[in-house]
């Protein structure tokens, strides 16, 4: 199938950020009485906003999150990301050599995260210029993932029918958003990732590397 536009999630697809963010969150939740491993924290929170998991946090801590606590989390998270963030292996090469020549200005980032976080991470790893003016945040639409709003906003901006868009995601929540938008969804699924859950969520293809994405998506 030939696609007219390519829409990327950010965390876990363009940047290797999930373990960093969840590491900070795990530590802060332990301070509130909920002890768990990093793996367990990622199972609970990857693909979700912390605010949308407030009920889960309350069940495990007996405490309701506050705006002040969220702001402290964002600050600690951003500090760790700023110092430790790395790009997904191979992403610079495939963007420059294969995807940009194929899609030109019809590539966008559609993330569930806040704009500051997305732009800061992309800037730190040297990817921001690839998506200048084409970054969309789930915080700036009516509903964040798994609702399709952020992908619909990106497709509308690019003037491409969502049915002709290819979405690259890495979580069941994000995959559900892409499917709900009417797009075709492929999942970035490096070794060790939960392949079955990604397939079950609606991803029609699993990609073990960014180079595999380039070979498949850049075909005429």
Structure overview:
The chain has 220 residues and is of the alpha/beta class. The protein folds into two domains: 5-16 and 86-217, 3-Layer(aba) Sandwich (Rossmann fold); 18-84, Orthogonal Bundle (DNA polymerase, domain 1). Helices cover 48% and strands 11% of the residues. α6 (115-124) links the parallel β2 (107-111) and β3. α5 (91-103) runs parallel beside α10 (210-217). The protein is globular. It starts with a strand and ends with a helix. The mean pLDDT is 93.
What count of helical segments does DSSP give? 10
CATH topology of the largest domain: Rossmann fold
| Oligomeric state, counting identical vs distinct chains | single chain
Sheet with the most strands: spatial strand order: 3-2-1-4-5-6
Whole-number tally of structural domains: 2
**Relative helix content:** 40-55%
Low-confidence stretches: none
Order of helices and strands: EHHHHHEHEHEHEHEH
* Radius of gyration, taken over Cα atoms and rounded to an integer in Å: 17 Å
Range of strand content: 5-15%
Summing up helix and strand content along with how strands pair, one would put the structural category as alpha/beta
Shape: globular
- What name goes with the CATH superfamily of the largest domain? HAD superfamily/HAD-like
Task: Calculate the terminal CA-CA distance, rounded to whole Å.
Answer: 9 Å
